[in-house]
Write a structure and sequence with these properties.
The protein contains 6 helices and 21 strands. With about 350 residues, it is an alpha+beta fold. It has 4 domains: about 90 residues, no CATH class; about 80 residues, Ubiquitin-like (UB roll); about 25 residues, no CATH class; about 80 residues, CAP Gly-rich-like domain (SH3 type barrels). A hairpin with a 2-residue loop joins strand 18 and strand 19. The N and C termini lie far apart (about 100 Å). The relative contact order is 0.07. It is found in: Cytoplasm. Belongs to the TBCB family.
Length: about 350
């Protein structure tokens, strides 16, 4: 609650806070004149207007009648009102609200987040709140406000302790860019995690825990804990077998070896495992059209197909492309050289 002093000169003041009958009387944080239909009348916007009696009791000022009348003026004078004599003023009852917070998109080299700021904050106070968000000391911050396609607005002031954010054109969801004025060598690199101490749980301790993903997989018999799951070798064999089916490789089909720079052609003569060759999975035995191979269809004395010497070769399925590839003759080779 507060006591107002109203006069025709447009001054609206408020008494300091007081305690009367266990009621705290507080001064107004904002008062303004409101224009009315008559040039001789004005209205003041305030929160609650009360007039105290001499005996420390208080009554609300009438909000419907004008105190400019002789009756009301005498009433106020009789009860020792602190309201000055009025000629034409109407006090209206309206609520005062503080300036609403504004949502801003705060971005820096190491952070980006949405923050709500109060226009009543001073620029110095605002910078101190930005320091733990951006990691930039308040004294090294350079603030820039970007509103849509407008030119950037610098958020700076000579006296940051007295300048409020309300002095700048804050708009909801405008971008506030916080730059670091320190030299690059003096800026900490928050994105480098190599120097951050990390905790690594020993494998034995992790395997002994009952609340881990590993324990859940064991209980559900998933992955390598599935007794019916194929081994790694079996999975590779199955993968190579699927590759043969997807590429349409069959016995006696024509193929071209990959990559295309190889350019050799031949006929598939064998599909299956070759234990004599290191590696797991299926192999494709190809009888080449020219003696540019490595064997005659046998490996270490074990024969897999018949062909001339150096006409045979074993390759992985992914190196074969099936299709209508006729044998190359000398004329074709000459044309390719041209």
């Amino acid at each position: 609650m507060f006591v107002m002093h109203v006069c025709n000169y447009g001054r609206i003041l408020a008494s300091p806070p007081k305690v009367l009958d266990n009621i705290v009387w507080m001064h107004a944080c904002r008062c303004e004149w409101l224009p009315t239909s008559s040039s001789s009348q004005r209205a003041a916007r305030a929160t609650y207007c009360t007039i105290p009696y001499r005996n420390n009791k208080h009554v609300p000022l009438s909000l419907t009648s004008s105190p400019s009348t002789t009756k009301n003026r005498n009433h106020l004078r009789h009860h020792g009102s602190r309201v000055a004599p009025l000629t034409s003023a109407i006090v209206t009852h309206m609520s005062l609200q503080a300036a609403a917070d504004v949502a801003l998109l705060v971005t820096s080299a190491n952070s980006s987040s949405e923050r709500r700021v109060s226009p009543a904050w001073t620029l110095a106070h605002f910078k101190t709140r930005l320091e733990p968000i951006t990691g930039i000391p308040a004294s090294c911050q350079q603030l820039t406000l970007r509103i849509n396609s407008q030119d950037p607005v610098s958020i700076s002031a000579v006296d940051e302790e007295q300048t409020q954010l309300a002095a700048f054109p804050l708009q909801p969801y405008a971008e506030l860019v916080v730059a670091d004025t320190r030299p690059p060598s003096a800026r900490p690199n928050f994105s480098d995690l190599s120097a951050v101490e990390k905790y690594e749980m020993p494998s034995a301790e992790y395997e002994s825990r009952s609340d881990s993903v590993l324990a859940w997989k064991k209980a559900q018999k998933l992955g390598r804990f599935d007794p019916n799951a194929p081994t790694i070798e079996q999975q590779k064999v199955l993968a190579s077998e699927r590759e043969i089916q997807e590429r349409g490789l069959t016995i006696q089909c024509r193929v071209r070896l990959l990559p295309e720079s190889d350019a050799r052609r031949g006929t598939v003569m064998y599909l299956g495992l070759v234990p004599e060759i290191p590696g797991i999975g299926f192999w494709v035995g190809v009888a080449l059209d020219e003696p540019t191979g490595k064997n005659d269809g046998s490996v270490k004395g074990k024969r897999y197909f018949d062909c001339g010497s150096n006409y045979g070769v074993f390759v992985r399925p992914e190196r074969c492309e099936s299709g209508e590839f006729p044998p190359l003759d000398l004329g074709d080779e000459d044309m390719e050289e041209l």
